[in-house]
UniProtKB/TrEMBL annotation:
Pfam family for this entry, one: PGM_PMM_I
Protein name: Phosphoacetylglucosamine mutase
Superkingdom in the source lineage: Eukaryota
Family: Belongs to the phosphohexose mutase family.
Organism per entry: Aplysia californica (California sea hare)
Binding note for cofactor: Binds 1 Mg(2+) ion per subunit.
Keywords: Isomerase, Magnesium, Metal-binding, Phosphoprotein
EC number of the protein: 5.4.2.3
Record field: catalytic activity: N-acetyl-alpha-D-glucosamine 1-phosphate = N-acetyl-D-glucosamine 6-phosphate
Length: 544
């Protein structure tokens, strides 16, 4: 039996049970886990075809990240650890939506269009998060991979960024690191150790309270700590031993509710951070001596990183251009600070790491972060070479050489393949330590405008269409004018509306000069969405 017939035959074990059309969105396919069996089987098939197309090892991650425990999802990783290219998303969508009988036709179509040599070998690295549904879905994916004759390397539980890292290492013959989980800990901990070799501090304390969302990040941070030695003392909270994944905890909960997660009794002087369910996002938070909860989100992390890298660039005498990439969710104050004070170019792109990652490649050093805490730094090949050359150059004064060596070491601490909560945590701790900063010092750069996010349930979220990096709607008619009219009524008012790519909702974002005004603006915009996009369920309620 040839591979395509076997793919059709094996599909009987994973029949398409759902009439609803699915589409490969912001983070692959994501929905209630019980609906995903055939999706995983078919993504197993596609990851093999994609591996043959790329002539390299691809990755398949099973996770629904920040979504509730009952959800699950899948995304395909390309050979350098980046997301599968957008030009392939249509194939994923097409393959998932055809009837069982048309699987071979759909595959043939992709193979012919992309001129793929099916005699090439294919390997797919598979990993999953800690959701109870992940194991069975991993079996469905494995069945798909093997039906098309691919080799499946199952890594079991990994954080999403660990899988991206390992895929990249595998395809670059170890140049990026060793393609194993241990290789990941070794690379990052070695760089962290070099950058944090002690010295007395007056404000920075190497102690962190870490909310791990009851997810896979807890297991992996525990492993990482074995490699870090006593360089950083971490108090683990929400480590999965009792609570439910992402329930009242995790980066998304803390960011959206602007409050500490369950399990952390926040007191002034404590530095805290939260991971999300698959450890690809991180936010920090603390409480002032006056008792105010303060969030240090992706925007604050981005400015911390960019400020540090920019100082190292100056001190090392390197002329490389540094840029920052954000989305519409970036707080208006952060964008003004980056442009007016840091004088760093800033770009705005639609939500989704794939968009930010792509844009960051335009710079020698591209820092990208979503406000929700998902981000990293990319160094172009030329930048990497220039930094390595400078760090090895003889005849430089000590300060210049020291800065170049630090840049090289930070590069090794950063997981450039994708936003990585563990790597980002180690970079934040390194910068705070080197600057001898407490959270308050970090937070001084600028003051966030108060903001509010809401979700509105509508009949069909795709009726909301956007343009200009999701900052304006083009459909339904009149919505954009209504949003602008409402925002104009508030000092520093800004609002936008977009359909979520990971949940069946429309998202509303608003910011204004006071929390009360941001809450009111978000509510008023939410009502417009509800009315103009055929809301279902509860109408947004006024802020209390
Ligand atoms: C995913 C994406 C992020 C995006 C988030 C929310 O995050 O990777 O880029 O910001 O979903 O997306 P949306 O607003 O479209 O639902 P994660 O951490 O859940 O994988």
């Amino acid at each position: 039996m040839d591979a395509l017939s076997r793919a059709v035959n094996e599909a009987q074990k994973h029949p398409r049970s759902l009439e609803q059309e699915l589409s490969y969105g912001t983070a692959g396919f994501r929905m209630r886990a019980e609906k995903l069996d055939h999706v995983l089987y078919r993504m197993g098939l596609l990851s093999v075809v994609f591996s043959k197309y790329k002539s390299g090892t691809t990755g398949l991650m099973i996770t629904a990240s920040h979504n509730p425990e009952e959800d699950n999802g899948v995304k395909i990783v390309s050979t350098l650890g980046e997301m599968m290219p957008m030009s392939w998303e249509k194939y994923a969508t097409q393959l998932v939506n055809v009837s069982d009988a048309l699987i071979a036709d759909s595959l043939k179509d992709i193979i012919t269009t992309e001129n793929i040599d099916m005699s090439k070998p294919a390997t797919v690295m598979l990993a999953m998060d800690t959701r109870p549904s992940s194991k069975a879905l991993a079996q469905a994916a494995t069945d798909g991979i093997e039906a098309l004759g691919g080799t499946c390397k199952n890594f079991g539980l990994l954080s999403t960024p660990q899988l991206h890292f390992i895929v990249c290492c595998e395809n670059t013959q170890g140049q990026y690191g060793q393609p194993t989980e241990e290789g990941y800990y070794q690379k990052l901990s070695a760089a962290f150790g070099k950058l944090n070799s002690g010295g007395s501090k007056s404000k920075y304390r190497p102690q962190l309270y870490l909310d791990q969302a009851n997810g896979v990040g807890a297991l992996k941070m525990k492993e990482m700590c074995k490699f870090l030695g006593d360089g950083l003392e971490i108090t683990s909270v929400n480590d999965g031993s009792s609570g439910k994944l992402n329930n009242q905890c995790g980066a998304d909960f803390v960011k959206l509710n602007q409050m500490p997660p369950a399990g952390i009794n926040l007191e002034p002087g404590m530095r805290c951070a939260s991971f999300d369910g698959d450890a690809d996002r991180i936010v920090y938070f603390y409480k002032t001596s006056g008792g105010k909860f303060c969030l240090l989100d992706g925007d604050k992390i981005a400015t911390l990183f960019a400020g540090y890298l920019s100082d190292l660039l100056k001190s090392s005498g390197l002329k490389l251009n540094l840029g920052l990439v954000q989305t519409a969710y970036a707080n208006g104050s952060s964008t003004s600070y980056i442009t007016d004070v840091m004088k760093v170019p800033v770009a705005c792109v639609p939500t989704g790491v794939k968009h930010l990652h792509h844009k960051a490649e335009d710079f020698d050093i591209g820092v990208y972060f979503e406000a929700n805490g998902h981000g990293t730094v990319l160094f172009s090949n030329d930048a990497q070479k220039a930094i390595l050359d400078q760090s090895k150059k003889t005849g430089l004064d000590e300060a210049t050489r020291d800065a170049a060596v630090k840049l090289e070491t930070v590069m090794n601490l950063i997981n450039q393949t994708v936003g990585d909560a563990i790597s980002d945590l180690l970079v934040v701790e390194t910068i705070l330590s080197q600057r001898d900063w407490a959270c308050e010092d970090w937070d001084l750069a600028y003051t966030d405008l108060p903001s509010r996010q809401l979700k509105v349930k509508v009949e069909d979220r795709t009726v909301v269409q956007t343009t200009d990096a999701e900052r304006r709607t083009t459909h339904p008619p009149g919505l954009q004018e209504a949003v602008e009219g409402l925002a104009a009524g508030y000092k520093n008012g800004r609002a936008f509306v977009r359909p979520s790519g990971t949940e069946d909702v429309v998202r509303v974002y608003a910011e204004a000069d006071s929390q009360q005004n941001a809450d009111q603006l978000a509510y008023e915009v939410g009502v417009q969405v509800y009315e103009r996009a055929r809301g279902t369920g509860d109408r947004p309620s006024p802020p209390s």
